[in-house]
Amino acid sequence: MKKILSSKKLEKLPPYLFSKINKLKLEAYKKNLDVIDLSMGNPDIPPDKEIIKRLCETVLEHPKTHRYPQAKGMPKFRNTVAEWFLKRFGVKLDPEKEVLALIGSKEGVGHLCMAFLNSKDYTLIPDPSYPVYYNATILAGGIPYLFKILPENGYLPDFGKIPQRIIEKAKILFLNYPNNPTTAVVEDESFLKDAIKFAKKNNLILCYDNAYSEITFDGYVAPSILQFEGAKDIAVEFHSFSKTFCMAGWRVGFVVGNEYIISQLEKFKSFIDYGVPTFIQLSAVKALLDYDRIVPEIKKLYQTRRDIMIKEFKKIGWVIEPPKGSMYLWCKLPEKITKEVGSLKFAEKLLVETGVAVAPGEGFGPNGEGYIRLALVTANNRFHDAALRFKKVFKELGVNLKIKS
After folding, report:
1. For the chain, what is the domain count?
2. 243 and 94 co-located in one domain
3. 352 lies in a domain?
4. How many Å apart are CA 248 and CA 332, to the nearest integer?
5. Is 149 in contact with 156 (CB distance < 8 Å)?
6. Secondary structure letter of residue 132 according to DSSP
7. Of 120, 199, 261, 345, which has the fewest Cβ atoms less than 10 A away?
């Protein structure tokens, strides 16, 4: 039998970044290396015991929850989301028309592209950014346009630098703050107001990925795009239980906002999936109801890890600015390594030789080159070891960092 080729859309995609890292991790384990995995934003702590208890009770005692769920999300889930959103952001939502359950926000973003993009439709994507924006555009048959976001601008886009000829062909604008991978946050809310005006003026769907809204530090509180006038005319906002409640493997999230956009996403999903299992939805309801008890402790844990890792890096002479949001560190590599090695080769060397797994910046877009992303997903006592292993590889590559007092 002749080899059956995959679709041209799939062939356009680069190898999935984390698949390559995972393959190298498996090889490291086979060599009996002591692996410290900082590559994915995959929480290492379990969900709260009361959430797990709710899941077990529901699965055992309510057999009807094993049947097909309501694709849009059960009313109890959507009502609880609306109540939480009002309390957290001060935004009133219609749970019937402006809330939709998702099998994780990644699924929702991907299906949004499929629901709205035709061939030759563009999406506007920050560079660097979460890879699903680019990949979902390609898989939907659209054309991704990458626009640079730069540290000197706080990783906020300058919409004026996007060519008008591209804007006229675009359908979706992606924004994500607190940002993955750069950890940037929006402190001047006039930016969000400008983003809404830009999207309305150019008839764009504003896809606001707010997966890290609840993982913030040093008193910073992340806003919702829907807090601002006119947002519901063009915006939808994605949220995930993966980071907020350490429920990554449970695959549950939601999208809220513009009624028409959500209705078309719901329509698309009704042809593709049956929605989130009912027992998972009820567990997510428990999580939202216990938000005030659970989330402050999770934030505290990540802030502690952030501070320890930055302190350990400082000991080897590598100074990293503490982020105000997300569960990552976005680390600028020494210039010599960027010029002579590059972020991917550096990440491979670090993993193969020392067992420390990180995400290379180039995997998030061309403008991510020169950086690596570290996920704060390991025990506190591992960060000292990780820093020493970085120091070893830096030295092998001819980089001797000066320790600053």
Report:
1. 2
2. yes
3. yes
4. 27
5. yes
6. H
7. 120
Angle at 188 between CA 187 and CA 189, to 5 degrees: 105
Q: How far apart are CA 235 and CA 233, in angstroms?
A: 6
| Rounded CA separation 368/332 (Å) | 10
Helices (H), 173-234: 190-201
Residue 396, H or E segment: helix 383-396
- Could you give the residue ranges of the DSSP H alpha helices within 187-317? 190-201, 241-244, 259-272, 278-289, 291-315
Q: Please check whether residue 326 lies inside any domain of the structure.
A: yes
Angle at 128 between CA 127 and CA 130, to 5 degrees: 115
Classify residue 358: in a domain, yes or no.
yes
In terms of C-beta density within 10 A (0-12 exposed, 13-18 middle, 19 or more buried), how is residue 64 classed?
Answer: exposed
In degrees and rounded to multiples of 5, residue 106 shows phi and psi of: -60, -45
Last residue of one domain, picked from the residues 260, 291, 322: 291
Residues 205 and 233 sit within 8 Å (Cβ to Cβ): no
Res 1: pLDDT: 66
Taking only the tens place, the pLDDT of each residue in 351-370 is 999 999 999 999 999 999 99
CA distances from 255 to 39, 135, 178, 273, 283 (A): 26, 19, 17, 16, 17
Report residue 153: phi and psi, to 5°. -105, 20
For residue 399, give every residue at least 6 positions away whose Cβ sits within 8 Å of its Cβ, in sequence order, or none.
334, 336, 337
pLDDT tens digits, residue range 108-123? 999 999 999 999 999 9
What is the domain extent for residue 330?
8-46+293-396
SS3 185: coil
Q: How far apart are CA 45 and CA 162, in angstroms?
A: 41
Q: Let me know how long the chain is.
A: 405
Residues 269/253/143/197 CA torsion (nearest 10 deg) = 110
Mean pLDDT for 165-176 is: 98
Enumerate residues 6+ apart whose C-beta is below 8 A from 372.
331, 333, 343, 346, 347, 358, 359, 360, 361
Angstrom distance (rounded) from CA 219 to CA 293:
17
Residue 194 belongs to a domain: yes
